[in-house]
Every structure is written in structure tokens, then in C-alpha cells.
Amino acid sequence: MRSPGVHLREITDDNRDAVRALRVRRDQKQFVASVSKSLKKAAKTPEANPWYRALYRGDEPVGFVMLSWRPPAGPFKGRHFLWRLLIDKRYQRRGIGREALTQIAALVRADGATELLTSYEPGDGEPWPFYQKFGFEPTGEIDDGEIVLRLTFPAR
């Protein structure tokens, strides 16, 4: 039996604690901030135009995603930037990150974007292979020590 698909849900008072409890593996902590830190960062930087959702599989929270959605200023002005993608350690290697990224890319593209940006900190266990398999390519830019990647959408 196939597991229910991944879907995005708003974070509310009803699910905030469950979503905050999601954790990556210990060896991944240097690459992905916790949900709590991400929500605090979103609250502190409204100019980044943060957009975030919980990732669910069925009724189970399995991850968290946060974008900077066409911020009005800054290095990524007017662009869509994947700021966080966190899949709980219990649900990794099941295609959830890929499915979530597919949905995010579709939303961003529907918003008129020609690309989706993200970045990662290089190091042992870095997420580059995941992003590379998905189709991201390095832009040549470095932002705050992180390598910036671009997923280009084909012309419609």
C-alpha cells in the first residue's frame, strides 16, 4: 500500500508544537536550523518576506519548509529563495524531500518565477547531492559562506 502523499499545511497553534519537535540527524544539524530557530528568524526578518509551511504525510508532520518569497530588497530581491528544507530524521530517504521540493517548485513557477534559488554550507554530509539530483546548479555566487544554487524552470 502506497503511503499518503506529502502536502503543505499552515502552521497554527494546533500543530506548532508538533512541527517544532521535528529534528534532523545529529550529523545534519550544522546544515539545517531547527524549526524553532527558523520561525524566530522569520519573525525577526519580515523584510525577507518569509513564507513557511509544515510538511505532512497524511496526518503526520514530517518536515518544514521556508522560503523568502520575492523579498522587496536584499541580495535576493524579487526572487524566490528556499531558505529551509527540513525532513525529520525518522522520515528521511523516503522521497518526502523530493516530493515537497516538487510542490514548492510548482508553486514558485505558478507565481511567475523563472527560477528557484537555495544555498548550502559545504561540508561532510552536505545536501548538495540531493539538490544536484533534483536539477539545481551552482550560480557561482557565495552568500554568507554558502554556495548559492539555482533551479531554472523551462520556458512555458
Structure overview:
This protein is of the alpha+beta class. It has one domain: Gcn5-related N-acetyltransferase (GNAT) (Aminopeptidase, 3-Layer(aba) Sandwich). It is built from four helices and seven strands, in the order E-H-H-E-E-E-H-E-H-E-E. The protein has a seven-stranded mixed β-sheet with strand order 1-2-3-4-5-7-6, with helices on both faces. It is globular and about 35 Å long. Its EC number is 2.3.-.-. Residues 6-154 form the N-acetyltransferase domain. It is an enzyme of class 2 (transferase). GO terms for molecular function: acyltransferase activity. Pfam families: Acetyltransf_1 (PF00583).
Q: Briefly, what is this?
A:
Keywords: Acyltransferase, Transferase. It comes from Streptomyces maoxianensis. Helix content is 24%, strand content 32%.
Strand order of the largest sheet: 1-2-3-4-5-7-6
Listing every helix as H and every strand as E from the N terminus to the C terminus, the arrangement reads EHHEEEHEHEE
Largest sheet: 7 strands, mixed
Question: What share of the residues lie within helices?
Answer: 10-25%
CATH topology: Aminopeptidase
User: What number is the mean pLDDT?
Assistant: 90
Please mark out the parts with pLDDT under 50 across 5 or more consecutive residues, or reply none: none
What's the assembly state of these chains?
single chain
Shape: globular
